[in-house]
Amino acid sequence: MTDEPPSPEGFSDQWQHLFRSALRHEGVPDTAQASLTFISAEEMTALSIEHMGGSGPTDVLSFPIDEWTPAMAESADEAGPPIVVGDVVICIDVARKAVTTARSLDDEIALLVVHGVLHLLGHDHYEAGERAVMQSREQVLLHALYAEAQ
Protein backbone atom coordinates (compact mmCIF):
# COMPACT_ATOMS: atom_id res chain seq x y z
CA MET A 1 0.00 0.00 0.00
CA THR A 2 1.04 3.53 -0.68
CA ASP A 3 0.13 6.93 0.69
CA GLU A 4 0.11 8.37 -2.82
CA PRO A 5 -3.22 8.95 -4.55
CA PRO A 6 -3.71 7.18 -7.86
CA SER A 7 -1.68 8.77 -10.60
CA PRO A 8 -2.85 7.36 -13.96
CA GLU A 9 -5.01 9.96 -15.68
CA GLY A 10 -7.58 7.42 -16.88
CA PHE A 11 -8.24 6.17 -13.36
CA SER A 12 -9.96 9.34 -12.28
CA ASP A 13 -11.92 9.87 -15.51
CA GLN A 14 -14.36 7.02 -14.91
CA TRP A 15 -15.04 8.24 -11.38
CA GLN A 16 -15.45 11.86 -12.48
CA HIS A 17 -18.04 10.60 -14.97
CA LEU A 18 -19.89 8.65 -12.26
CA PHE A 19 -19.68 11.68 -9.94
CA ARG A 20 -21.20 14.03 -12.53
CA SER A 21 -23.78 11.44 -13.58
CA ALA A 22 -24.91 10.94 -9.96
CA LEU A 23 -25.25 14.69 -9.45
CA ARG A 24 -27.23 14.99 -12.69
CA HIS A 25 -29.41 11.99 -11.75
CA GLU A 26 -30.28 13.76 -8.49
CA GLY A 27 -31.31 16.93 -10.33
CA VAL A 28 -28.16 19.02 -10.03
CA PRO A 29 -27.65 21.02 -13.23
CA ASP A 30 -24.45 20.56 -15.23
CA THR A 31 -23.59 24.20 -14.59
CA ALA A 32 -23.22 23.52 -10.85
CA GLN A 33 -19.71 23.39 -9.47
CA ALA A 34 -18.57 20.30 -7.57
CA SER A 35 -15.30 18.42 -7.28
CA LEU A 36 -14.15 14.88 -6.70
CA THR A 37 -10.56 14.40 -5.56
CA PHE A 38 -8.52 11.35 -4.61
CA ILE A 39 -6.11 12.01 -1.76
CA SER A 40 -3.47 10.19 0.25
CA ALA A 41 -4.06 8.61 3.64
CA GLU A 42 -1.93 11.35 5.20
CA GLU A 43 -4.08 14.08 3.65
CA MET A 44 -7.28 12.28 4.64
CA THR A 45 -6.06 11.92 8.21
CA ALA A 46 -5.46 15.66 8.42
CA LEU A 47 -8.94 16.43 7.03
CA SER A 48 -10.57 13.86 9.29
CA ILE A 49 -8.91 15.33 12.38
CA GLU A 50 -9.66 18.91 11.39
CA HIS A 51 -13.26 18.51 10.27
CA MET A 52 -14.61 15.38 11.94
CA GLY A 53 -12.59 15.08 15.14
CA GLY A 54 -11.25 11.75 13.87
CA SER A 55 -7.90 10.23 14.66
CA GLY A 56 -7.00 8.62 11.35
CA PRO A 57 -7.97 8.42 7.71
CA THR A 58 -11.50 7.64 6.59
CA ASP A 59 -12.64 6.46 3.19
CA VAL A 60 -14.67 9.48 2.05
CA LEU A 61 -15.46 12.99 3.22
CA SER A 62 -17.93 15.42 1.71
CA PHE A 63 -17.84 19.17 2.12
CA PRO A 64 -21.14 20.72 1.05
CA ILE A 65 -20.92 24.42 0.23
CA ASP A 66 -24.29 25.72 -0.98
CA GLU A 67 -27.03 23.92 0.90
CA TRP A 68 -28.61 22.03 -2.00
CA THR A 69 -32.36 22.02 -2.52
CA PRO A 70 -34.18 20.78 -5.64
CA ALA A 71 -35.63 24.29 -6.04
CA MET A 72 -32.11 25.48 -6.82
CA ALA A 73 -32.17 23.55 -10.09
CA GLU A 74 -35.32 25.36 -11.15
CA SER A 75 -33.78 28.75 -10.51
CA ALA A 76 -30.34 27.91 -11.95
CA ASP A 77 -29.47 30.46 -14.59
CA GLU A 78 -26.29 30.47 -16.63
CA ALA A 79 -26.20 34.26 -16.34
CA GLY A 80 -26.47 34.18 -12.55
CA PRO A 81 -24.00 32.99 -9.95
CA PRO A 82 -23.21 29.26 -10.17
CA ILE A 83 -24.48 26.76 -7.68
CA VAL A 84 -21.49 25.48 -5.70
CA VAL A 85 -22.49 22.05 -4.46
CA GLY A 86 -19.21 21.17 -2.74
CA ASP A 87 -16.28 18.79 -2.68
CA VAL A 88 -15.89 15.05 -2.17
CA VAL A 89 -12.53 13.52 -1.27
CA ILE A 90 -11.78 9.79 -1.36
CA CYS A 91 -8.83 7.90 0.06
CA ILE A 92 -8.02 4.85 -2.07
CA ASP A 93 -5.81 3.33 0.64
CA VAL A 94 -8.75 3.17 3.02
CA ALA A 95 -11.09 1.98 0.26
CA ARG A 96 -8.72 -0.94 -0.42
CA LYS A 97 -9.40 -2.22 3.10
CA ALA A 98 -13.04 -2.89 2.16
CA VAL A 99 -12.14 -5.11 -0.78
CA THR A 100 -13.30 -8.71 -0.43
CA THR A 101 -13.82 -11.61 -2.78
CA ALA A 102 -17.37 -10.31 -3.29
CA ARG A 103 -16.49 -6.59 -3.52
CA SER A 104 -13.83 -5.21 -5.87
CA LEU A 105 -11.93 -1.97 -5.44
CA ASP A 106 -13.97 -0.50 -8.30
CA ASP A 107 -17.20 -1.48 -6.51
CA GLU A 108 -16.00 0.22 -3.33
CA ILE A 109 -14.91 3.39 -5.14
CA ALA A 110 -18.25 3.55 -6.97
CA LEU A 111 -20.06 3.29 -3.64
CA LEU A 112 -17.87 6.00 -2.11
CA VAL A 113 -18.44 8.34 -5.06
CA VAL A 114 -22.21 7.91 -4.82
CA HIS A 115 -22.12 8.11 -1.02
CA GLY A 116 -20.15 11.35 -1.20
CA VAL A 117 -22.59 12.86 -3.71
CA LEU A 118 -25.53 12.04 -1.48
CA HIS A 119 -23.83 13.72 1.47
CA LEU A 120 -23.31 16.83 -0.68
CA LEU A 121 -27.03 16.84 -1.35
CA GLY A 122 -28.01 16.67 2.31
CA HIS A 123 -28.40 12.94 2.97
CA ASP A 124 -27.03 11.51 6.18
CA HIS A 125 -26.80 8.16 7.95
CA TYR A 126 -26.46 8.88 11.66
CA GLU A 127 -29.98 7.75 12.53
CA ALA A 128 -31.56 4.48 11.39
CA GLY A 129 -34.28 6.17 9.30
CA GLU A 130 -31.77 8.45 7.57
CA ARG A 131 -29.44 5.52 7.00
CA ALA A 132 -32.18 3.44 5.33
CA VAL A 133 -33.11 6.31 3.00
CA MET A 134 -29.49 7.00 2.10
CA GLN A 135 -28.63 3.34 1.51
CA SER A 136 -31.70 2.92 -0.66
CA ARG A 137 -30.72 5.96 -2.72
CA GLU A 138 -27.15 4.62 -3.03
CA GLN A 139 -28.48 1.37 -4.46
CA VAL A 140 -30.72 3.21 -6.95
CA LEU A 141 -27.78 5.29 -8.19
CA LEU A 142 -25.35 2.38 -8.31
CA HIS A 143 -27.83 0.25 -10.23
CA ALA A 144 -28.69 3.04 -12.67
CA LEU A 145 -25.21 4.49 -13.21
CA TYR A 146 -22.54 2.00 -12.20
CA ALA A 147 -24.06 -1.38 -13.00
CA GLU A 148 -24.73 -0.23 -16.57
CA ALA A 149 -21.06 0.68 -17.03
CA GLN A 150 -19.93 -2.82 -16.02
Provide a brief overview of the structure.
With 150 residues, this protein is α+β, with helices and mostly antiparallel strands. It has helices at 9-25, 41-52, 70-75, 92-96, 105-120, 128-146, and strands spanning 33-39, 60-64, 84-91. The protein is globular, with a radius of gyration of 15 Å.
Walk me through this protein's architecture:
By secondary structure, the chain is α+β, with helices and mostly antiparallel strands. Helices cover 50% and strands 13% of the residues. It has 6 helices and 3 strands. A 3-stranded mixed β-sheet has the order 1-3-2. The radius of gyration is 15 Å and the shape is globular. It starts with 8 loop residues before the first helix and ends with a helix. The model is unreliable at 1-9 (pLDDT under 50).
The radius of gyration over CA amounts to: 15 Å
**Overall morphology:** globular
Order of helices and strands: HEHEHEHHH
Q: What's the main sheet like?
A: 3 strands, mixed
Distance between the termini: 26 Å
Mean pLDDT: 87
How many distinct helices?
Answer: 6
Widest sheet, order of strands: 1-3-2
Poorly predicted tracts of residues: 1-9
- Report the portion of residues in β strands: 5-15%
Q: Give the fraction of residues assigned to helices.
A: 40-55%
Structural class: alpha+beta
Total strand segments? 3
